Every structure is written in structure tokens, then in C-alpha cells.
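Worked example 2:
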Amino acid sequence: MIDVKIYNREGKELESVQVDEALFGSTIRYPLLKQAIVMYHANKRVGTAATKNRGLVAGSTRKLYKQKGTGNARAGMIRTPVRVGGGVAFAKAVRDFGKEMPKKQRRLACDSALLAKMHSGRLVVIDELTFDAPQTKEFARVLGNLNIDRSCLVTIDREDANLYKSARNVPKVDVMMVSDLNAGDICNKQKVLFTKEAFLSLLDKKKTN
């Protein structure tokens, strides 16, 4: 069992929740976790870099001059890569870097990422994180009280426009729904901040599955 503490906005401990490691696969599957991270990084690559080869540049395919008798080095078409204005020898082409993983593997990788955060003490739960209006300064103060001074993934259980607007100008902080969690985003941040409702809903979902 892992003891996960719940804090208030001032950084004071209010209570704790006992989390059964079996809900998140009991052990951290490092090979699967790496495979998922590589997949998420690869899927972010655009892959639109392209240059023209000799078949794509404009120009005739006629031989510039006859092979022998001119005293010049033999030459082919004007589009050859060795001539100015010719095509690129090994031209880049548009390609898809995307990778795929089965849904079950993605889910297990996400569980391993969350379990790793809990083992390292980098998963933080706050009792509530609501704002009557967008307040970036107050949001930053709450993060400071929770000792979150680097990158952070804020996880909520329902849409909150004021929270999104309060966090969008804070560097290296993202807000995500608990239903959208994935291993790539979890591992890309130093800490993961859950609201109490989001964390309990995650545990309930794990218990019912």
C-alpha cells in the first residue's frame, strides 16, 4: 500500500489515502513505459521536411552536349545533382514517423507512469483547486505552497475554464482531464498534481475495471 497525502492550498496536510499498488499493476513496467514514451514522442514529429530530387526540379532531360569530341568532361542532363540548380542527391521526402501501441499496453504504461510518480513522491493531491475568476498569481502561489517549482501536470475531473486560464501563462504547466492521462505527458512533467475529486475518480475507475 502507498500512502498518498492530500494537502490544502496552503500546503498543509489534511488527510491521506491508502492506494493499493495492485490497482496500477503492482510493479513498474520499464520496457513498456519506454516503448510508450518513444511512441508519444514519435507521434509529435511532423515529418513534412522535403527537398526536390532530380526528378522534381524543372529542366530538360536532354543530354547537354555530345559525349565525345568537345574536350569537356562528359555531362548528362541539366538536372543532375552536381550542377547548380539541379536536384538534391539524397532528397528528403515527406514521411510519417507515427507509431502505434495496443490500447491495453497504453493503459498499462499509464499505470506504470502513475505508480512511478507515487513511489518517488512526485504525485501530489490537493483538496480543491477552483477559482471564481482567472487568477494566475493565486494559482502560482498555490503551486509554491505545494513545493512545485518546475514542470507540472495538473489533472482535473471536469472542465474548468477559470483553472485553464489561470494556468495557461505559467511556464511548463499543463492542465488535463483525468480521462486523457497518458504515459507520455505524465513522464514529461516532474510532478503530477491531482485534485481530490480527480484522484478518487481515478481510483474508483481502477477498482471497477
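The first helix runs from residue 30 to 43. The chain has six helices and six strands.
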